[in-house]
Every structure is written in C-alpha cells, then in structure tokens.
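Observation: inputs received (chain + flavin-adenine dinucleotide).
Thought: call the complex predictor directly.
Action: predict_structure
Action Input:
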Amino acid sequence: MANERGFMELPFVAETHESVATRITHFNEFIATLSDAEAVQQASRCMDCGIPFCQNRCPLHNDMPDFNKMVAQGRWAEAYQTLISTNDFPEITGRICPALCQESCCLGLYQPKEVGIKSIERKIVEYAYANGLVPSLPPQERTGKSVAIVGSGPAALACAIRLNRLGVTVCVYEKMDKIGGLLRYGIPDFKLSKEVLDRKIKQMAAEGVIFKTSTLVLATKDAAPNLEAGIHSDHKAVVSLAELKEQYDAVVLAVGSETPRDLKIPGRELNGIHFALDFLIAQNKENQGQSLNPIEVKGKKVVVIGGGETASDCIGVAIRKGAAQVTQVDYHEELPETVKVREVWPNARHIKHTSTSQEEGCTRLFATNTTAFVAHPEHPERVGSITTVQVKWGPKRKITPLKGTEGSLEADLVLIAMGYSHPSQQAFEQAQLDKDERLNFKAALSGSHAFQSSDPQVFVTGDCRKGQSLVVYALAEGRDCAQSVYQQLQALPCKSA
Ligand SMILES: Cc1cc2nc3c(=O)[nH]c(=O)nc-3n(C[C@H](O)[C@H](O)[C@H](O)COP(=O)(O)OP(=O)(O)OC[C@H]3O[C@@H](n4cnc5c(N)ncnc54)[C@H](O)[C@@H]3O)c2cc1C
Ligand code: SF4
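Observation:
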C-alpha cells in the first residue's frame, strides 16, 4: 500500500471525456488517458487488500494491488511488467473492457467510487509506449512446432502472441482484409482507435507472427463458400481445414460467434432493415479510407433494436453520421439506477447502465417488443415504421405482451442488434466437430485437454467456444488455449510448416 490514507483522503479521478457536442463531430477516441499525476492519485487510493476481489473477478486475473502500488510510487517500468505478466493487450482492455474488476473493488463498499483500475491500466501501457518501455520479445529459439490460428480477433491474437513467444511458428488466417476481428470490424473507432490495434499487430509481426488476410478457412474446399446472412468476408483465397491440419501440428479455431440473431417478423423483407454489423463494419471501412458506408442515415429516423454493446455502437455511429433521431427499442425491462452495493458485492450490479453513445442523444424504450416492420406509405418497398407492444417478464425469462400497450414508431432505417448466436455452421459443418446445445464448438476450459475439440488436432477458443461474450474473456481464453496447445505439442514429433 503506497499511501496509507489514500483510500480515505483522495477522491476518484475520472478520465476526461470530450463534450458530447464536440465528440459527435468525429470518429476519433474522445476519452483521454490520465496524466501522470492523475494516475498516481488514482492508484494511491488502492487499499492493497489482503484478498483482492478485483483480481479474482478479472478474467485475466490482473495483479491490480501490485501495479497500483508501483504507479503510486512512480515505478512505471515495473508496473508495466506486472501488468503484461497477465495481460498481453492492456491497450485494448484499458479502453473497452467493462471493468468487471471495479464492481468487486473493496473501496466501493466505503466510498462512492471504487479505484479506477481500467484507467490505470490504460495509463500504464500508454506510458510504457511513450517512454520506450515496450520491448520486442521474439523467441530466443524455435521449437520446430507450428500452429495455424483461424480468425484474428482478441482470442486469436492472445493465442498467437503467447505461442510465438514460446517458440512455436504461428500463422494467423483471417477472412477479412485486415487483422483484428471485432476489434477492427465492429467496435467503432471512437471506442478503440485502429492505430492502437495496428501498433500491436506491427509488434506481433516484428516478433515473428505471420498474418494471412483475405483467406477464408472452410472445413473442405468443395464446400461452397457462402456463409450465413449477416456474416462478412473479404476473402480472395480459400484454404481447407484438412490442408491446415496437413501443414501444421495443430489448428486453433478462434472464429468468433458471427451468426446474427434475426427478427423474423412481418415486413422483414422491406428495404432499410440491416444487421448492426452491416452498418458498423462499413463505417470502420469508411473511416479507414476504403469504400463509403452504403447505409445512409443522414436526416433519417433510425430505430436500433437490441440492448447491448452492439446496439450502443450503432447509436453512436448513427449520431455521428447525422441521423435526425435515434430510438433504441429494448425488450428488457428498465433496471434500477442503483443497488445497495453491500447486498451484491463482490458480484455484478444489475443496474441501468448508460453508455457514452446513449449519452449522446437517443431515446430508450424498455420492455418493448417489436412486432412488425411496416412499409412506408409512399415508398412501399421500404420500411416506414415499426409496430410495438409492451411486455412483462416472468419466470424462466418468459415474456408476455400486455394488452392495450400496442404502439407504433416511425422508422426510416432499422438496425437489428440483437446479439449473435454461434459461429458459422456453413463454414465448418463438414468438419464434424462436436458442438454444445447452442451450436458453439465444444471443448473443456481446463484439464489436460483444455480447448481441444473432438478432433485432437483442432483447438477452439474465444466466442466460438464460449458463445458471444467480452473481449477480456476472449483474451483470457486465447492465452490459456496457447498454454494448452503448447503443452500438448511437446509430446508430438515436429511437422515442417
Ligand atoms: C459491435 C460489437 C461491439 C462490442 N463491443 C465490446 C466492448 O466494448 N467490450 C467488450 O469487452 N466486448 C465487446 N464486444 C464483444 C467482443 O468484441 C467479442 O466478445 C470478442 O471480439 C470475441 O473475440 P473472438 O476472438 O472470439 O472473435 P471475433 O472478435 O469475432 O473474431 C473472429 C474472427 O474470425 C474470423 N473468421 C471467422 N470465420 C473464419 C473463417 N472461416 N476463416 C477465416 N477467418 C474467419 C472473423 O472474420 C473474425 O475476424 C462487442 C461485440 C460487438 C459485435
Ligand atoms: S481487463 Fe477488465 S476486468 Fe481485468 S483489470 Fe482490466 S479493466 Fe478490470
């Protein structure tokens, strides 16, 4: 504990946010990294608890008490080493992790605000980059083993960086034209700058990770490469899983959970109804100087259906693109603004969260189900409104429509952001890997065969195993998967890659 009275005397330091009026004029990040002094103050609030619940709650088990103490004492290089001993991507989690750890921080039991762990994490890594403290860590020697990783989201990147540093030759295959998975194509630039991602990918490439983009991997090459509606691909080449198994000692599938949940209600065929990622990916590409986003929202009444991060991201992008009005239709009930922290700590607080995008000006409708898309009276080929009904939630997540609450809402454009159910079934159907009841690839999370699928040469990790989740879980799975693959490869003779 660097400051024995810090937790009593020092107030929480919030990261500075650009005003709404300014930030909606651009797509750049609008949250500033803490200054050195702010970070020292924030870290000095840490109580160095005997049982650090924050560390337990973080899927990566970051060592917050230690790196907080080091920051509070100005020991930045040690803080960076401590942070990256558990998390290879703090520049990502420091920006877009929902900071599960902070709900478990003991200080939150006594003070209105816990320790701002996420902001310290971001500060440590940005300080390290700015001060030349980020070393390149290519392996000292190669093991002769090789692994193909399919997908390049956080699970794949976490697996690749680890395996490569352990001396395994790693080649990442990605169907999109750039590396990053949802970090690149999905999450808007104002939450995560693609320069931050590129800086890391450059470092990984310099350490020896091989990246192959625009390459779709399918169970067999004969399988027609038509993926489910709503799944995007920029592939120019197709490689089969069988070829990868032939060429590499092991294959890791980190292909995400890309199949979007659809809303199959009357009027779904009308123009002007899009999956969220059609809109978000196109905007990421436009921001990168590629083709313009064909989904035009300027001056339109936009309805976003769904309640999670994806919906929030659609709201923020639509506002920046000049939508006349944005309404979010969420069938979940509105949660209370606060809970008694002592009654739920150290677990999740089920309270109403307002994202920075929602702050930027959207109307939120709760406990509202969309029942039909209705054609525009003058343009019958496209959507003009939606019909809705209020719902009540009952036991076993049963929702009951409430009579007399039917309504309608003007909608020039609808974005469906209702989540993702499982990885593409088309792509890997013929691989005949065991799946769980939700159609994710089946593999144990621990034990001597952790992450191994029903095909012993194929490992699965991230959202394609766990189901749609969070970046921090994907990073944790990717890292643990690397360890499991590495251990299991030790027993095998080498193949040349
Ligand atoms: C819009 C949106 C916003 C989100 N915001 C947040 C957030 O703010 N914070 C947070 O913690 N989480 C967020 N999430 C969730 C988070 O992004 C995911 O949980 C995480 O990216 C999953 O990582 P992954 O590596 O398993 O898969 P993904 O990131 O989905 O990456 C999978 C990759 O595999 C590639 N691929 C798939 N099939 C093939 C194939 N056959 N051949 C070659 N390549 C293939 C895909 O193109 C993709 O690049 C968000 C999700 C969405 C959709
Ligand atoms: S990765 Fe997320 S949960 Fe873990 S310490 Fe960082 S902000 Fe907290």
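Thought: report the result.
Final Answer: The chain has a mean pLDDT of 96. The pocket of flavin-adenine dinucleotide (ligand 1) is lined by residues 96-98, 150-156, 173-176, 181-182, 186-187, 191, 216-217, 254-256, 258, 280, 309-310, 313, 424, 427, 462-463, 468-472, 474 (CB under 6 Å).
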